[in-house]
Amino acid sequence: MQQKNEAPLCACGCKERVKWNKIYKKWEEYLYNHRKRTKKFWIIPKGNPPLCICGCNEKVNWNKSLKKWNKYLHNHHGGGKSCLGLSERLKGKGNPNYGKGKIIKEKRGEPPFCACECEKKVKWNNSGWKWNKYIYGHKVQKIDKSNWIRIPCYICKKDVYRLKSEIIRRKTKYFYCSTKCCGIARTQQNTIKVFCSWCNKSKNLLKKRLKLNCKNYFCNAKCRGKYQKGRKHSEETKKKIAKNHANFSGKNHPNYGKQGIENPKWKGGVGNYSNLQKFSKKWNCTIEQARKRCRKLFDNNIVQTVKEIEQCKTLTSM
User: How confident is the model over 253-311, as pLDDT tens digits?
Assistant: First the structure.
């Protein structure tokens, strides 16, 4: 391993000092991007360059990555806009594939019939270079009638084939040909047709949303507003509304002024969960053990509030 002394000069001949390579821990031979200046990097070809294949009688360039002569000039491959030799040469009889289309069609022969026995001829497959077996959409799996049963669809009454084992397993009479028919059947089973009491339009409602004692149904909010316009409540309905919407705020509330054990929400004077969490950390115990200690203090009338628990000296003895 070399020692890090004075840096040597670059090998390209620029008379500049190279840098230290921290990974390999040695001096580099060249500076950055100075290796291309040498003749070893660029392998210069011998001889004259060949002509372009397109027929333009122009010399091609050297390919530095592949290290060989190119076949075409830039944009001359396939007869580009700047090249006129190939486009003029391949016109008419100059094209090497001139007249071969008829020969290829004669080799194909006549198209065969479709394998589904529809008595129609198939098309030529250019990718596979052969005749197709089926017309598009005519390929259908053959059904063994011994294991299958023919059943009509519940809605459209088209023929549907199902296995015997499937019919026994499902134990239902309803079979469908597609997802559309299945969706229509589910809406019929889970919904009920209801007529609007204002405009008499039909509407499908779910059975879950139907009310037992409800007599009037509406298709939208506008029909509801037109139906209820000008109507007044009877005295019986007014009494029911007064009971359900009575004023229980303030002194009218039955539990107003009740504190401690008299209040139905009394929990033994323990307080919130956050207070018990503080006491459990101080006493080095669980929350349930802290709750039991607090209840003993409240039952024995030693403490009346949560703040007095911190000042109480009898906790150490308990």
Answer: 888 888 766 777 766 555 555 666 766 776 677 767 777 777 666 666 555 566 666 65
DSSP 3-state of 222 = helix
Structural domain spans, the chain: 99-140, 191-228, 272-318
Instruction: Give the relative orientation of helices 287-299 and 273-283 as an angle to the nearest 10 degrees.
Output: 100
Return d(Cα 256, Cα 266) in angstroms, integer: 14
Residues in Cβ contact with 203 at an 8 Å cutoff, skipping those fewer than 6 apart: 193, 194, 195, 196, 217, 219
β-strands 20-21, 26-27: how paired? antiparallel
Amino acid at the residue 147: N
Query: What is the DSSP track for 50-103?
Result: PBPTTSS--BPPEETTTTEE-SS-TTTTTT-TT--HHHHHTSGGGSTTTTHHHH
Residue type present at position 1:
M
Cα–Cα distances in Å, from 92 out to 95, 223, 313? 6, 78, 116
**Is residue 196 a contact partner of residue 217, using CB atoms and an 8 Å limit?**
yes
In sequence order, what are the beta bridge partners of 59?
51
Q: What is the per-residue burial (b if ≥16 Cβ within 10 Å, else e) of 143-155?
A: eeeeeeeebebbb
SS3 (DSSP) at 218:
coil
User: For residue 233, what pLDDT band results from cuts at 50, 70 and 90?
Assistant: confident
CA distance linking residue 306 with residue 270, whole number of Å:
7
CA distance 269 to 302: 12
The neighbour count for residue 109, using CB atoms within 10 Å, is: 8
DSSP SS3 for 140: coil
The predicted pLDDT at position 18 comes to 92
Residue 248: CB partners within 8 Å, gap ≥ 6?
254
What is the Cα–Cα distance from 115 to 120, expressed in whole angstroms?
9
The structure tokens 């929400």 sit at: 265
β-bridge partners, 162: 149
- Which amino acid type is present at position 89? R
